[in-house]
Amino acid sequence: MAKTFEIVPNAGSNPRVARNAIILLIVIVLVAIGGPITVVPAGHVGVKDFFGSVSPNSLPPGVHLIVPFTRVHKMSIRTEELKETAEVPSKEGLMMDLEGSVLYRLDPAKAADVYKTVGANFAEVIVIPQVRSAIREITASYDAKALYSSEREKVARETQDLVKKMTDGRGVIIDSVLLRKIGLPAIVANAIQEKLKREQESEQMKFVLAKEQQEAERKRIEAQGIADFQKIVAQGISPQLLEWKGIEATEKLAMSPNAKVVVVGNPKSGLPIILGGGGSEK
Prior knowledge:
- By secondary structure, this protein is an alpha+beta fold.
- It is about 45% helix and about 25% strand.
- It has helices at about 15-35, 110-115, 120-140, 150-165, 185-235, 240-255; strands spanning about 35-40, 45-50, 55, 60-65, 70-75, 80-90, 95-105, 170-185, 260-265, 275.
């Protein structure tokens, strides 16, 4: 007699498997939506924001695992250039058109604080207003001609120091402040340039006069030296010395083998007169 087997499904197992599958599917979807992996590009740091709770530790460049549903804000820490054009006053009250640049960057250690207190547009809130204020304050203490001379670099350094002081502790690093262009009315600019030209000519003339004075002093010292030498030589020469030197010279000439005529009885010096004749010395 043949036996018939009937497979009766387990009523309790299928719902559990389905439930587990649904849970697993939900977890996968949540993980995919939550994004547990984030990539911070080079030259940036990542600020973690989990439903309004900002982590004080920012993420360095690279691949990172994070808690799902955590938003990561990438903030640049590269050096940025801020170009500023402003109308600034001089010490005389003259208004000038100034063009400058500020090189700045975000401090990586304070990126989270900057994000919490200021936001991603920190340059517009922290850097720009302070730069404008510092430029006006520094230029107002200098004459307009200073910006056309070597003092321009000094003005830039003082502006940089003031901007650093204003932004100290705000999470922004100021690298340098550069003054590129100073604009003045044409008539004023020409007057300043003419004045600078006259000052340069005056300094050149002072140099020429100083050089001529040095040359005159050199010639005076040289003439005094020659005069002193002649005085010393004149004091050491006496008539007796000259007669003695004449006797020595006469003796040497008389002893030479050359033919000569000796005339004795010179009334001036008492020395004989020697007249040379023909012949050569052997």
